[in-house]
Amino acid sequence: MTSEIWTEKYRPKTYNEVAGQEDIVKRLEGLTNSMNIPHIMFAGPAGTGKSTLALIVVKELFGETWRDNYLELNASDERGINIVREKVKDFARTKALGNVPFKVIFLDEADALTPEAQQALRRTMENYASTCRFIMSCNYSSKIIDPIQSRCAIFRFKLLEKKDVIKYLGTIAKKEELEINEEALAAIYEGSEGDCRRSVNLLQSTAAVSPKITVDLVATILSNVKPKDIKIVLEYALAGDFEGAKNKLLDVMLKESISGQDVIKSMQKEIWNLTIEPEIKVRLTEKTGEIEFRIVEGSDPFVQLQSLIASFVLAGLGK
Amino acid sequence: MTSVDSKPSTVNNYQTWVAKYRPKKFEDIIGQDEAIEKIKTYFEKFPKVKKKALLLGGSPGIGKTTLVEVLANEIKAELFELNASDFRNKAQMQEKLKPVLEQTSLFNNKKLILIDEADGVSGTKDRGGLSELTSLIENSPFPIICTANDVWGKKVSGLKKKCEIIELKEISPSQTKDLLKKILELEGKEVTLGVLNKIAIHAKGDLRSAINDLEAASSLEHPEDFEIDSRNKKEDIFNAIKIIFQEKANPKMLGLYDKVDMPLDEIMLWIEENIPKVYSGEELVRAYQRLANADLFKGRIYKQQYWRFLVYENIFSSYGISAAKGDTEKKGLFKYERPGRVLKIWLNNVKHAKRKSIAIKFSKQTHVGMKRIMKEWKEVLPFLKNPKIQEELKLEADEIAYIMKY
Q1: Mean of pLDDT values over B267-275
Q2: What does the CA dihedral B316, B322, B325, B331 come to, rounded to 10 degrees?
Q3: pLDDT-derived band of residue B6, with 50, 70 and 90 as boundaries?
Q4: Domain spans of chain A, in order of start
Q5: CB–CB of A303 and B371 under 8 A?
């Protein structure tokens, strides 16, 4: 059955359908031709083809029976490393079907695991080394502990080039009989920050409104999507209304289910649009950086963001 | 704690005043006429009652346990006491209950089961305990009385559904004083009116601590010097944050949260909620920075399991918050509030539970993490309205309704 969700319907199914990442594709092809792979790490930004290539690898290895020999886990969705280990244990207990002597576990967003959890994972990898291969994906390989990195062949994914994404979107648009021009395609690309998967989702969402896609339509869809509320939070704060800002912040974080890290990213960008003195801009950026550091380190994002908002209130008072 | 075992034998006949003057009959109990009436009516009707257990609520030392003991005495029932720790596991509880449920007493068949401090049973850590307790209530042939300090607290919310609630009245300082005077008379001792007043007011309705204080004061050579020992006195959270926010910062504040019967994590939520109620401008900024610092160390404790960081978490969240206003005090009445964030998060989760269940289905179909889909919800929502995709994801009717609402 073909999917109606375009990211699935048009997901590359073989190596030669993959856009960009030529070097990676070549290396992987060599591995799967020999019917043996080491543990693998895919490092790189979102929407550059990591999951897609993992799927192609298992399809190349196992053919028709790939579903029986492939387990997909998402580290940021699983509740704790123990659940991950249990699932791995269950899956690895039975032998692989077919000619390949191992099964493949794809661990997506592996950098969501704490270093301690990664240590535990390392043990699991060792225990099942004879029956399982891991493909791990992460945004930054530096967030993965050395012992795991040293067990993996590392593949670094680059952000796809604009022309590649646009070409890909164009192919989909043609097959779906959409009316769309270069300019609108470019707007979708910009709106999804180079993330190919998101750009396909955006294309499908825009097409759900109308098959005639203009730049304006893309802009309308995007304006619904962007968390512009962060700007309101800062406006409240600069006007001295701390409680208003704080309540709005909690609202936004809950309603849009965006994380503290996303909020702070938007805040940092928003500082440039504020009408405040250059010196204060720098000071707020400094403070923002410190708070982002703390949130990354694992502090309560809401508490930390409140202290940041308080700093904005002070900046609004000209101090 | 001093060892009880090493008590010299000469004091064996000695009874503390609290034990000595514990009421034996209903008429000995002060200030709880209404509750007594309710309990009497309840036992006249038992077992033909709507709810098979009673929940007695009231602050510590007000006389909840005493009331049950008096009741057992008055209706000539055998009293079996259980406490929170008996509910840790099923086997243990049944072991404990066996004699109650099996053995019929020689002279009569009346039994009464007391579960003292039931708020200790049904805490979130003892979910199992609560279900044991409720099933006991449903199946027990004998009446059960539970006691709790706060019947409106969330710790007993599950239990409340099974119980008829009777709240004991707060005892006023003048009622306390009358009782203390009576005891002094019976003991043939004297303290000054000033000390008496001090004890009665400080007790805040806690008769047990009042009688203990009175006994301590009267045993002094100069009872007028009596200082109430407030070291072990539990501090109310409202009072604690009032001290922090309004009084001049002083090192005594460092021990303040230890006296509050609440984990520091939860106290931090109270601080977070109430900073803007009292502070403004630069004070407010400083206070939030201190709170953020406390939180930073809290995170480091969790991460590195290095518990000395607790010292810093505590200093920042107590003295640090207080000193945010400089070397001053804040006079006046401020309306402190319970923390709202946890409730808001919970409400939001309930409201968007459907979004999560849809995201899980979408996640399975598209090889993308559920959390990421939640984050990009608005980017996929427009095409989730497509019936073909809804069918492909095997969405339920209520999930479809949730999507179409937008």
Answers
A1: 93
A2: 170
A3: very low
A4: 21-156, 162-222, 227-316
A5: no
